[in-house]
Each structure stands twice: as C-alpha cells, then as structure tokens.
Amino acid sequence: MSALYEQLRAAGSDRERRAITGEVIDEMRLNPHDNVANEAYFSLCDRVINNLGHTAVGRPIDYNGQFPPMVSAFLVMTAPRVSGFLGAIHALPKVRTAIEAGPGASAIFSVAAAWRGAHVVGMEINEQAAECATEVV
Predict the structure, then answer these.
(1) Are the beta carbons of 82 and 76 closer than 8 angstroms?
(2) Is 119 exposed, middle or buried (0-12, 13-18, 19+ CB in 10 A)?
(3) Which end of the chain offers a freer environment for a tag, N or C, measured as fewer CB atoms within 10 Å?
(4) 127: closest CA among 67, 58, 73?
(5) What DSSP string describes 100-124?
(6) For residue range 24-83, what is the model confidence (pLDDT) as tens digits?
(7) Quick one: which H or E segment has residue 72?
C-alpha cells in the first residue's frame, strides 16, 4: 500500500491534499539523492495505475511510440531528471499557464507547475497514461 496514496485519500480538503503533494514535490526537488519522496510519489502512481486496472509493465507488441503507464512513470521518476525539472519549474517567475507534452502516468511536472499556481494543460497520446495522470492530479 502506498502511504502517500492513503494520506491523500484521508485528507479532508483539496487544500490539505495540495499541501501534502507540495511537501513531497519540495522534498524531491531539495533532496534529489534521498529517494524517500521519489519512492513515495512512484508508489502513488503505481497504486493509481493498479486501481485503474492497468498492470502492463513491458513494452507492448503494438508499441507505436507509447509506453504503458508504469513504464512511463518509471522512466520519469529518476532522481536527476526529477530534481532538474522541479528545480527549473521553481526557478521560473510565476507563470499563469503551462503546457506539458506527454505527462505520462505520473504527471509530476504538471502537478508541480499547478502547485506553483499555473493553469496546466497536459497532452498525452496514451489513453491509459492520460487516465492515470488525471487520477494522480
């Protein structure tokens, strides 16, 4: 069970959920070599993906440039990539709108931009990954 998933589900309001998510994202940005926050977020994505009935972890035969949701999340959730992107997002002056092309199942960069106050539009061609990203967000 994902402790972060359960914590977010138990939160009483959107404000509490945003605060919890914000703490995890800040921890990922500030301490990229401490994998606790990375693993918590990845675990959240894994729980969402499984709850939605998506379990494929291998590359499908009809690949067509689309990764299954768990593969997508795994590729994104590497410490150097996460800390680099989150650092860049936090270094920007406040923006009103952000577009993420291919947020995958984790949508971590969309979540981080939204947490900073931006209206975010994510464009994902993989329907399963889009469904997972929507649930994560």
Answers:
(1) yes
(2) exposed
(3) N
(4) 67
(5) EE--TTT-HHHHHHHHTT-EEEEE-
(6) 888 888 887 887 888 888 888 888 888 888 765 554 555 556 666 666 666 667 777 788
(7) helix 69-76
Instruction: Name residues whose C-beta falls within 8 Å of residue 112's C-beta, 6 or more positions apart in sequence.
Output: 25, 29, 85, 86, 89, 90
Using alpha carbons, list the distances in angstroms from residue 133 to 47, 59, 64, 127: 12, 19, 20, 10
Contact assessment for residue 38 and residue 73, using Cβ atoms and an 8 Å cutoff? no
Residue carrying structure tokens 């650092």: 87
Q: DSSP assignment, residue 33?
A: T
With the C-alpha atoms ordered 7, 9, 13, 17, is the resulting torsion angle positive or negative? positive
What single-letter amino acid sits at 28? Answer: M
Six-digit token pair at 37? Answer: 């926050």
Helix, strand or coil, per DSSP, at residue 42: helix
Look at the block and give the residue holding tokens 């301490």: 31
The residues facing 79 across adjacent strands are none
